[in-house]
């Protein structure tokens, strides 16, 4: 969905300073609107809203959260100045000033950059109209690209420590139509996240009504992908969200977590020292953020573990090296300590510092640390698990088991949370720390995880294969005098070409197959993939009855039977997915919604993470 622009300007004809009538509707229709649309934005002006109710309601909502506000200052119109003031007071960026000829400039924005356009007889001057349109379009593009650059609002320029209000707090309660649309979109976002349909989140992000909402969706997609251990894809989504909302603290944290994981896997040109610098940069802006301090610990902790975690070493050798590298462990403890000092309610910093301190002492160190943790009522699992961690340090196996079992009750089948706690216990086991208590905890979590399906990221396909186009010709194509496009008698040639392409890719059980399953190429591809054991996922743009009616049944041949045969062979946990049911009705026309699948106007088989795009050789018929 396009970015959203609001135009604040007079309506109709108004007297100019020299007594000439100025036609602002003509200025809007012939200059402003075409120029803004050419920059890729959707335009809204208050007088265009025909819904019942107070027009000010929609005007305020647009001023609060529109991606861009264009204010026409040709006249000293009180309404326009008022709207510009509201925007400047609540948003530091995303404002452009335009004006026609005027003899004086208002003092408050005298130095602000403005686009000056020409008029002839109170309407846009035909001689310079194209030049003015192009200049405004370029100005908008430049301004949107440099969104996080210099602040535009004089209010925020004069008060550098003033923070913009968080966009959700700018909800104008009476703009029911706007927020009903948002609430529907937000529900689809949350449903996709809870169902583990991570791929739906970027699609929904692109359909958000304004940039702030898209930032939210991209960041949620990034978090979900990170939890599924797709760190590269997660980083891409997080960076898209941060490009819109650069100061989002959670997004900044998540980005560095992904950078750190990728650095550890050797997949980025980032060393752990560079990742540490990213954390320090966040702390420069948010010095009291306990969560970032706690995440910083992972750098030292990972470096410490890397020193001794060698599968070829005996337990005693691991322990000797872990003891020798105690400086890294001490640094990790200190960062946890810093987090707890800044927020005594940050309970897991407390318990982790205490755990590592006990381990440090067990390895021969002499550090002392003590603190109380305050449970977070909004995260019952973590607070309960913290009590289990404490029992590991001080108790016996029975209370360890009881505490962790109680925590698991509140985990809400969160595989990531359970596995995270289990990983900590396994680390302690490798160091031979309190073996009986640690073993009791491991048993509890391993048993709980056997009842849960790991996140999708735990199975990562070797390559993803996507096929789109063409459908076999409908039976009435010849009757209508149309040239053959994909005649039925050429199906064997298509089957051979698709089979050859799949064999070139070595398609097999380690791969993922995506297609719509329409008659012709899609169905042939699906059948070929199933024959090779590829995991098949059908993605259909319409409900099944409509899809069969429009995309399967019209073709010559018995494609409906083949459709159901493919469907019957699907794995039970991979049923066909219907776009309107999963993502809601598309805000775009169906053809536009399918455009990413049919961008190459010929059959295409795509595989991998942007690595292979293999056009299927089309027989010359």
Structure description:
The chain has helices spanning 24-38, 55-65, 78-90, 129-145, 154-158, 176-195, 200-206, 211-227, 231-244, 249-264, 272-285, 290-308, 315-324, 326-342, 347-362, 380-394, 397-409, 415-430, 435-450, 491-505, 521-531, 544-551, 559-568, 579-583, 590-593; strands spanning 3-8, 13-15, 21-23, 41-45, 68-72, 95-99, 114-116, 119-120, 123-124, 464-468, 512-515, 535-540, 577-578, 604-607, 612-615. With 621 residues, it is α/β, with parallel strands linked by helices. Among the domains are: 3-159, 3-Layer(aba) Sandwich (Rossmann fold), CATH 3.40.50; 175-287, Tetratricopeptide repeat domain (Serine Threonine Protein Phosphatase 5, Tetratricopeptide repeat), CATH 1.25.40.10; 461-615, Rossmann fold (3-Layer(aba) Sandwich), CATH 3.40.50. Helix 21 (521-531) links the parallel strand 11 (512-515) and strand 12. The radius of gyration is 30 Å and the shape is flat. Pfam families: TPR-S.
List keywords for this structure.
621 residues, alpha/beta, Rossmann fold, Serine Threonine Protein Phosphatase 5, Tetratricopeptide repeat, six-stranded mixed sheet, five-stranded parallel sheet, 25 helices, flat, disordered C terminus
């Amino acid at each position: 969905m396009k970015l959203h622009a609001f135009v604040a300007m007079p309506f109709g004809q108004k007297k100019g300073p020299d007594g000439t009538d100025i036609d602002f509707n003509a200025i809007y229709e012939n200059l402003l609107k075409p120029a803004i649309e050419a920059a890729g934005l959707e335009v809204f002006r208050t007088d265009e809203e025909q819904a019942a109710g107070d027009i000010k309601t929609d005007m305020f909502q647009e001023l609060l959260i529109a991606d861009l506000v264009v204010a026409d200052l040709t006249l000293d119109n009180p309404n326009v100045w008022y709207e510009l003031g509201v925007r400047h007071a609540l948003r530091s960026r995303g404002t452009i000033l335009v004006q026609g000829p005027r003899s004086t400039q208002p003092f408050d924005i005298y130095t602000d950059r403005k686009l000056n356009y020409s008029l002839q007889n109170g309407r846009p001057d035909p001689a310079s109209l194209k030049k003015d349109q192009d200049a405004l379009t370029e100005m908008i593009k430049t301004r949107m690209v440099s969104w996080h650059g210099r602040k535009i609002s004089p209010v925020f320029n004069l008060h550098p420590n003033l923070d913009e209000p968080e966009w959700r707090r700018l909800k104008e309660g009476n703009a029911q139509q706007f927020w009903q649309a948002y609430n529907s979109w937000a529900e689809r976002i949350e449903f996709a996240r809870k169902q583990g349909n991570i791929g739906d989140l970027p699609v929904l992000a692109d359909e958000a009504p304004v940039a702030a909402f898209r930032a939210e969706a991209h960041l949620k997609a990034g978090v979900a992908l990170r939890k599924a251990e797709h760190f590269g894809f997660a980083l891409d989504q997080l960076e898209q969200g941060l490009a819109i909302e650069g100061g989002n603290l959670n997004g900044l944290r998540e980005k560095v977590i992904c950078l750190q994981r990728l650095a550890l896997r050797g997949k980025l040109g980032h060393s752990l020292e560079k990742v540490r610098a990213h954390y320090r940069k966040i702390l420069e802006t948010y010095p009291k953020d306990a969560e970032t301090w706690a995440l910083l610990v992972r750098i030292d902790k990972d470096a410490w573990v890397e020193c001794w975690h060698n599968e070829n070493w005996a337990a005693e050798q691991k322990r000797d090296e872990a003891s020798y590298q105690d400086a890294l462990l001490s640094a990790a403890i200190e960062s946890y300590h810093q987090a707890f000092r800044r927020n005594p309610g940050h309970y897991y910093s407390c318990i982790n510092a205490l755990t590592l301190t006990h381990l440090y002492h067990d390895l021969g160190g002499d550090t002392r640390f003590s603190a109380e943790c305050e449970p977070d009522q909004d995260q019952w699992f973590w607070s309960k698990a913290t009590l289990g961690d404490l029992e590991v340090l001080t108790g016996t196996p029975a209370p360890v088991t009881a505490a962790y079992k109680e925590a698991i009750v509140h985990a809400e089948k969160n595989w990531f949370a359970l596995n995270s706690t289990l990983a900590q216990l396994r680390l302690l086991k490798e160091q031979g720390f309190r073996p009986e208590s640690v073993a009791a905890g491991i048993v509890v979590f391993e048993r709980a995880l056997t009842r849960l399906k790991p996140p999708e990221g735990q199975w990562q396909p070797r390559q993803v294969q996507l096929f789109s186009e063409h459908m076999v010709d409908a039976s009435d194509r010849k009757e209508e005098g149309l040239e053959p496009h994909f005649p039925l008698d050429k199906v064997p040639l298509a089957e051979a070409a698709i089979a050859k392409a799949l064999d070139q890719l070595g398609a097999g059980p380690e791969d993922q197959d995506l297609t719509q399953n329409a008659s012709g190429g899609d169905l042939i591809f699906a059948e070929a993939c199933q024959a090779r054991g590829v995991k098949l996922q059908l993605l259909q743009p319409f409900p099944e009855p409509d899809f069969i009616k429009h995309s399967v049944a019209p073709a010559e041949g018995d494609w409906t039977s083949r459709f159901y045969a493919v469907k019957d062979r699907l794995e039970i946990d991979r049923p066909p997915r219907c776009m309107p049911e999963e993502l809601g009705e598309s805000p775009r026309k169906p053809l536009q919604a399918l455009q990413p699948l049919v961008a190459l106007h010929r059959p295409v088989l795509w595989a991998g993470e942007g690595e292979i795009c293999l056009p299927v050789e089309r027989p010359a018929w």
